[in-house]
Each structure stands twice: as structure tokens, then as C-alpha cells.
Design a protein that fits this description.
The chain has a single domain, classed as Hypothetical protein (Archaeosine Trna-guanine Transglycosylase, Chain: A, domain 4). The longest helix has 13 residues. By secondary structure, it is of the alpha+beta class. Helix content is about 25%, strand content about 30%. It is globular and about 50 Å long. InterPro entries: EOLA1/EOLA2 (IPR033615), PUA-like_sf (IPR015947).
Length: about 190
């Protein structure tokens, strides 16, 4: 997907300090299988359901946040943590049944798939692509594909990040979530 005309705003001094700290703690997930590895450190982000499952099942390919939280993660692997709480709105259901054309049985199967490991766990991995600011005024023709990819409406003025290559871990890792990025050690035998 090509995005033009959107730029990120200038970072504040505090955001630049946060970026330096994050850059020093974020590492790409590249495994050299010739060297034995017991575990791999991976940056994680909590997603409420149903979005965690929708990301890991490849339905949601665009994440939206009010700040460019994932911008520094571009071209890296992100761990997906399934939060204990549900997303409070129901607009995702309207996107699944409307623009994505899913019937009730398909939606129920998708929701069940997303719950396979339960809550409060790191459940999978996804590759992080570019982050861009969604403009305040987009035509409906430009906005609808983004809403389908994000499985959410109301994306204007949010920072959008492309997600790809979703994969479930072979088993979940129990972990407390966080509002920002944090690092978790994933045992090598749980990697897909």
C-alpha cells in the first residue's frame, strides 16, 4: 500500500528523548540458526480483543494510535500481547460485516480463533512497516480501504502503522501488559 502526502509532525524534545531510550532497547528479531539461542528479546505491545486476534489472524493489517508509538519499530518484529480487557466500541463488528462482507458465523469463528490462547499473554509476532499520519480530510474512496485494513472507523489524525507477516507462537507466554512498548524474552522453542 502506498501512502503519499502524509508526514509526521516534528517531535518534541521529550519525544526525542523517548525515541533515544527506545532505540537503545529495541532490537530486530533476526535469528542465526547456526548459533544456539535459548530465548529472543522482543518488544511487545498490548492489544485489546478482538484486535489482537484480528492482527494475528491477518485480518487487521493497519494499527492506529494517537501517537506514533510504532514508528521506531519499522522493519522490526513486534510481539502481540492480548490484553485482559475488550475494546469498548463495536465499530469493528460493523467493518467486518459491512466492508469486509463477513457473516455472523465467520465473525464468530474469527473471534474464537483470536481467543485460542486466552488473555494476559504474548500470543504471536508481526512485522512492523511504515507509520504515517492519516490526514484530517480524506475522500471516502481514500479512507474506506484504510478503515477496512484497520478494522476501525474514525482514523483521521491518527498515526497508522502497516503490519504484516502475522504468526502465532506455538504456545502463549503469560505476561502482564503495559500501555507502551516493553520487552519480553520469548523462548526459542515457542517461535513459529
Amino acid at each position: 500500500m502506498r501512502h503519499t502526502g502524509s508526514t509526521l509532525p516534528e517531535n518534541t524534545e521529550e519525544e526525542e528523548e523517548d525515541a533515544e531510550v527506545m532505540n537503545s532497547s529495541v532490537s530486530q528479531l533476526h535469528l542465526d540458526m547456526s548459533v544456539p539461542v535459548d530465548s529472543v528479546p522482543v518488544c511487545c505491545l498490548s492489544f485489546r480483543q478482538p484486535f489482537a486476534g484480528l492482527v494475528l489472524d491477518g485480518v487487521k493489517t493497519v494499527e492506529s494510535r494517537w501517537r506514533p508509538l510504532l514508528a521506531l519499530m519499522q522493519n522490526q518484529t513486534l510481539g502481540i500481547h492480548i490484553a485482559r480487557r475488550d475494546w469498548e466500541g463495536e465499530e469493528w463488528r460493523a467493518v467486518l460485516s459491512g466492508p469486509l462482507g463477513m457473516n455472523r458465523a465467520q465473525i464468530d469463528a474469527l473471534l474464537e480463533s483470536g481467543e485460542r490462547f486466552g488473555r494476559g499473554v504474548v500470543a504471536g509476532l508481526v512485522d512492523v512497516g511504515p507509520t504515517w499520519l492519516c490526514p484530517a480530510h480524506l475522500s471516502e474512496a481514500e479512507l474506506r480501504p484504510l478503515e477496512r485494513s484497520a478494522v476501525l472507523i474514525g482514523l483521521e489524525q491518527k498515526h497508522l502503522t502497516h503490519l504484516s507477516n502475522p504468526r502465532w507462537l506455538t504456545q502463549p507466554i503469560s505476561s502482564r501488559g503495559d500501555r507502551d512498548l516493553w520487552t519480553v524474552e520469548i523462548p526459542a522453542e515457542l517461535l513459529p
